[in-house]
Amino acid sequence: MALFRPSPHVERLVAGLGNPGPAYEGTRHNIGYRVVEELARRHGFPRAKRGFEGRVAEGSIRGRSVLLLQPTTFMNDSGRSVAAALRALKLTPGDLLVVHDHIDLPFGRLRLLLGGGSGGNNGVKSVTSLIGPDYARLRVGVDRPPSTHPDVVADYVLSRFSESRAEVDALTDAAADAVELWLDAGLEAAANTVNRLPR
Fold it and tell me: What are the φ and ψ backbone dihedral angles of 44, each rounded to 5 degrees?
């Protein structure tokens, strides 16, 4: 994979969280990766390159120059990749949207918000520990596991969706739509729409 050199014109950073490697493809924890890949497909982004301890691609969405990032540090260290990209691009946390799975939302529900807690997501904890809490998050509902015991939660998010492929594709599409709306209308207006969407 070729090394990435960003242009000086990038306006927004969209980071989809997940874990690298075939073993994690299709898992609940990798929904952030899926959303970023869908955005790249829709908008004709070039093939991803290596950069900022992740896979990155630069292109245009809704008239804005956007960098799409998939950290490859593994979920628990996602903040290293995100913080490095922000520094290199000379962007602020207000220019960032992090897309991640969220077990406290039913499957299919989305929540777009600024700040807030991690909801137990270690990738979000990692990002917050390095750049602070004042960045936008798109929480993608993957439903609750049968128990809140840490081992059960870990097994649950690292397993593949029990829903049909069509349902997972529809969730991915809805989340990508939400990112586009954030880019187009800004956080407040986008949240007013996204957070009222039915499942």
Answer: 65, 40
Query: Model-level pTM?
Result: 0.95
For 59-92, the pLDDT digits (tens) are: 999 899 999 999 999 999 999 999 999 999 999 9
pLDDT digits (tens, 9 = 90+) for 164-191: 999 999 999 999 999 999 999 999 999 9
Q: Which fold has domain 12-194?
A: Rossmann fold (3.40.50)
- ∠ Cα 168 170 172 (to 5°): 70
Residue type, 91: L
Residue 2 has what pLDDT? 64
> Domain boundaries in the chain?
12-194
Residues known to be catalytic: 29
